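Ligand-bound model needed. D-galactaro-1,5-lactone.
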Amino acid sequence: MTGPVLLTGAAGRIGTWLRGGLPERGWAIRSLDIVPVTDVRPGEEHLVADVTDLAAMEDAVRDASAVVHMGGISSESTWAAISHSNIEGTYCVLEAARRSGVPRVVLASSNHATGYTPRPDSGLLTEADAPPRPDTYYGVAKVTMEALGSLYADRYGMDVVCLRIGSAFAEPTTTRQLSTWLSPADTVSLVDAALSAPSPGFSVVWGVSDNTRNWWDLTAARALGYEPADDAEVYAEALIEVHGEPDLADPVHGRVGGEFTTAAFDAENFEPPAPRADIAPGSGAQP
Ligand code: 15L
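Prediction:
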């Protein structure tokens, strides 16, 4: 197929990098987001739609050669919000692609799909050694994303590449990110590889830069054709001066999901408090 690549989450941080970088690598982009993209590029198609609207997604994927799904909530939130935007949204993207015969979908999974996985004592952690072990509702949605991708690949023969993205930011801002950073340029390279690899079938790969302190095995990503160019180590001296050397016994550095595995991400910090049955609304009683 020769149609454009439908890019969801196009107005977001990663979407904006991809809208800049993928056309330079020969990909025509059809952008989609729930909010308008304000700086539409020459030649870029542009749609405003909700990824959880299956009919709208069917229209959006028509004639596309592939979908890159970056849409959804990008961190922890309430169960209601995550299950709607991130689980229902991923289902709609895959189902719309299937109905329209789009052969390939690239999904923004996350390290948080396996966040409670401990750092190995030695060597690099492969994807096979990091099965689903979510650290948050957000991570549960990424596990579900990978499961839906597996289903659509096995049942319908679609190519589905899940990118377990590390920390995709302009530059690393914490000492954990000296290991987990995925630079903007490497994000473009990784998605380009996921779109270009011949017949990847169902694939789950880590998404990090060529960081000196990386501990996630990039063999599978490189097999797709990914060639990372950046290394967070250039930021190490400045970050360590402020935050100190990483303590590997600290869960932030000793587990894949870092901070997301700590009490700061317990549900009560995200969910509204449940109404108490013993206090009548409007009674003025204090809990
Ligand atoms: C992610 O998946 C999130 O989208 C991002 O906000 C960061 O938390 C990142 O992971 C990370 O682990 O640093």
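Confidence is low (pLDDT under 50) at residues 283-287.
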